[in-house]
Amino acid sequence: PVTTESITAERTTLAPTTAAAPTTVAAVPTKMKLNFGEGFKNEYLIGEKLDMSGITVSVIYTDGTTKKIPISDCRVTADDSFGTDERYETVKVSYGDVSETFTVRVLYGEDTKSLNSVYALFPDDFKFTVKDLNNIDLSGMEVYAIYSDKSREKLSGGEYTVTKEILPDNKTAMITVEYKGVYTTFGIEEEK
Length: 192
Prior knowledge:
This protein has about 190 residues and is mostly beta strands. The chain has no helices and 14 strands.
């Protein structure tokens, strides 16, 4: 006997899904606010280092949220010469693409010693005339720095710089002695 089996095939099709998963955009900082509390220092004496104590940083994001950020997570920048002269200094605090600035004041203290001037001394037999302006011998010259506290310091040769400029008349050389941005200038003439 021959038996016939009937085979039924079932076909299932999956419909393509068209609903996209919701996308989320990460909130990014848009603004920074600095708060100055107890311990904040707005005046410094010359020589003191910048102190960020007492400053709290709040960052406002695009989604409207505000988050406190530790100052240690921020980049703090000030002039390289911060605290070296009496003036107002601007300090910048940055976090990502947002930043804020504030100003502090640097003052002279009672015992602050600052450089006022420099001068050169020469031996009694030094002549301010030479045969050749290109060969001026300044080996007998002594250079001194004068400070705001009236003190004076003799400088060694490596501490100051000497530059020479021969004037257009080719008969006079201007000598400049410079130390820490303060200088004195004198002339030496060619012998007649």
